[in-house]
Specification:
Blueprint lengths: L12 E3 L3 E4 L6 H8 L2 H4 L11 H12 L7 E7 L3 E9 L7 E6 L8 H14 L6 E7 L3 H9 L3 E11 L5 E11 L1
Antiparallel strand pairs: 1-2, 2-3, 3-4, 4-5, 6-8, 7-8
Length: 182
């Protein structure tokens, strides 16, 4: 008797019309550090320090390489002509729902890359990864992120959490929570 494993296996990349999401490589460290090192980027995240330097990017790449792919998947966002333009990922702390986070480098704002990447990543999460619910939070002072989440089908939960931002010196920041359902 032959047993076929039908468990979905996460693809190593996600492709959209203009972007490719893939695992970060060591040669991406410079681009990641250059883009994420902008205070406008890291100050809108909970985990990124400021200043964000190449050593932080190398640690990030190593951390992504060690992820448990059943609970976490992180990708750099790459544009064919521009190279790395940002990152997007999913993580699931123990006992918590799956959460999505992303950032796009400031030189690439206003081009629709965040929305395109989030839509493709959510399609992947709902299809290949078979996740039915994803949460995301955006700092209350980040209206651009709110707009991206709304465009990708997230709905406000009405919940406001207080989260700390490493780049803001550990300051408590009001974070509006949203939910996406497949």
């Amino acid at each position: 008797m032959c047993v076929i494993d039908r468990t979905p296996q996460p693809r190593d990349q996600i492709v959209s019309r203009r972007l490719r999401m893939r695992a970060p490589k060591s040669e991406d460290a410079g681009a990641i550090a250059r883009l994420a090192g902008d205070y406008a980027i890291c100050s809108m995240t909970t985990r990124m320090p400021y200043p964000y330097v190449e050593g932080d990017a190398r640690s990030f790449i190593k951390l992504v390489g060690a992820q448990n792919r059943e609970r976490e998947n992180t990708f750099v966002i790459e544009h064919e002509a521009e190279g790395v333009v940002g990152a997007i990922g999913f993580h699931q702390p123990a006992g918590q729902p799956l959460e999505m986070g992303y950032w796009i480098g400031k030189p690439y704002w206003g081009r629709g890359y965040a929305t395109e990447a989030a839509n493709a990543a959510l399609d992947w999460a709902g299809g290949d990864w078979r996740r039915r619910m994803v949460v995301a939070g955006h700092f209350a002072d980040n209206e651009a992120s709110s707009k991206v989440l709304i465009k990708t089908g997230f709905l406000s939960t009405g919940e406001v959490q207080t989260r700390s931002s490493r780049a803001r010196g550990g300051a408590a920041v009001k974070t509006r929570m949203m939910v996406w359902l497949a």
